[in-house]
Amino acid sequence: MAPRPIRYSPSTLEAMHRDYADSRCIRLRNRLVEAHLNLVRQQAQRQAQRCNLAFDDLFQIGCIGLVAAVQGFEPSKGHAFSTYAVPLILGKMRHHLRDRHQPIRCSWRLRNLMAKQEQLQQQRQHQGLPPLTDPVLALQLGCTEERLEQARRLHHALQCTSLDAQSQDADGQSSVSHELVDARPSPEQNLLLLEIDEKISGLAPVDQRLVRGCWIDGRSQRELARELQLTPCRLSRRLKRLQQQLQQQLSAAGPWQAQLQ
For residue range 87-142, what is the model confidence (pLDDT) as tens digits? Predict the structure, then answer.
């Protein structure tokens, strides 16, 4: 369980940061870390809602970023400590998620069901037998056909596809229709997908259906145009506008970028 932060007044915290910058006292550093634990707690709570890593694990990882922030903060520059610390805390969490964890929260039962289905079909293939139909497959796995389809959709959603992959446009021509490239150095696909999902959630409901249907679910633009009652050309223009909007948001450099270099 995360410890409760020690409460200090803003003026006291400023004085403590100045004293630490001069003395580099380890005991004073630890007091500052304890005083700012609320910053780690806030970011851990937000990230825990978006990934499959527990709050306590995220909190511990974020504390590493907080220690680095306390040690690197220069109060003489006049910036608020939170402005400097939050990107470091969040960066530690996201690096851990990017390198070691799948940021998409999903049902392990559905993933296990999909694994059993693939194993069963592969065994039949090795035996020279035809693949099982869905009703028979569901019966052997002890589930409904609807549950089996859910497992397949989840499996498809977890397959990371290159954001500049070829896709079909409204005229049936192969084109790069979703060049959502994060301008920050060396982006990792899992982290980028997490950030894109946050941006998509802020769009209008119709635009969310359009973006998720085309870029995440892999549906054709013609199918989406019929469903949303739009002409293919109008849908294509709307997708291009949304692509540019999201690309600008993802490419925007935060005010802390120079501090992290």
Answer: 999 888 888 876 665 545 556 677 788 888 888 888 888 888 888 888 888 898 88
Report CA 36 to chain centroid distance, whole Å: 25
Closest by Cα among 46, 44, 38 to 13: 38
From residue 54, alpha-carbon distances to 33, 44, 141, 194, 195 in Å are 21, 9, 30, 17, 19
* Separation CA 213–CA 221 (nearest Å): 9
Q: The dihedral of CA 159, 160, 166, 170: what is its sign? A: positive
Structure-block tokens of residue 249? 């948001």
Give Dmax (Cα) for the chain.
Answer: 76
Digit-coded pLDDT (tens) for 213-256: 777 667 777 877 888 888 888 888 888 888 877 777 664 443 33
Q: How far is CA 135 from CA 150, 247, 251, in A?
A: 14, 43, 47
Model-wide pTM > 0.90: no
**φ, ψ at 108 (rounded to 5°):** -70, -25
